[in-house]
C-alpha cells in the first residue's frame, strides 16, 4: 500500500518504562501498602470497579490500561512475550466479573484481585520474585 508507514518495532524497555510510570502515576498515596519508591507485595487502586444492585462491573479507561500495563511489565520481567490485548488480564477480569457479578475475588497466575463496593481493588502479586526485580 502506498503512503502507509509501517509501525516501528516496539521496544521492550519502552513498554516497561511506560508501564511503570503509568501504574505509579495512578496510585493513591493514602494507603500504606502503596510505596512511591517501589512495588510491595500488594497495591491498592481506586476506581477499579463499579458496583450496583446487579453486581460488579469493571471500569474502562485509564485504570484498565494501568492493570494491563502491570501485567505487561511482569511478563517482560519473566522473559515471556507480551500477550495480545484481546487476552490480557483485563479481558479475563472482565469475563470473570460478567460471569460472577457478585464475587469479589479474581485470581490468575500473576495476581489476586480483591475488589470492593466503593470501587477500590487490592492487587496482590503472586510472583514476588518478579516484583523484586
Automatic annotation (TrEMBL):
Protein name (record): DUF4942 domain-containing protein
InterPro entries the record matches: DUF4942 (IPR031339)
Domain DUF4942 as annotated: residue spans: 12-132
Amino acid at each position: 500500500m502506498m503512503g502507509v508507514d509501517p509501525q516501528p518495532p516496539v521496544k521492550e524497555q519502552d513498554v516497561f518504562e511506560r508501564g511503570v510510570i503509568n501504574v505509579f502515576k495512578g496510585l493513591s498515596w493514602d494507603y500504606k501498602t502503596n510505596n512511591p519508591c517501589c512495588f510491595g507485595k500488594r497495591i491498592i487502586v481506586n476506581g477499579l470497579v463499579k458496583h450496583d444492585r446487579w453486581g460488579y462491573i469493571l471500569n474502562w479507561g485509564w485504570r484498565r490500561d494501568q492493570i494491563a500495563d502491570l501485567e505487561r511489565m511482569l511478563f517482560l520481567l519473566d522473559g515471556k512475550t507480551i500477550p495480545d490485548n484481546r487476552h490480557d488480564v483485563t479481558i479475563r477480569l472482565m469475563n470473570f466479573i460478567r460471569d460472577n457479578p457478585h464475587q469479589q475475588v479474581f485470581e490468575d497466575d500473576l495476581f489476586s484481585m480483591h475488589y470492593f463496593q466503593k470501587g477500590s481493588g487490592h492487587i496482590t502479586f503472586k510472583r514476588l520474585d518478579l516484583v523484586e526485580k
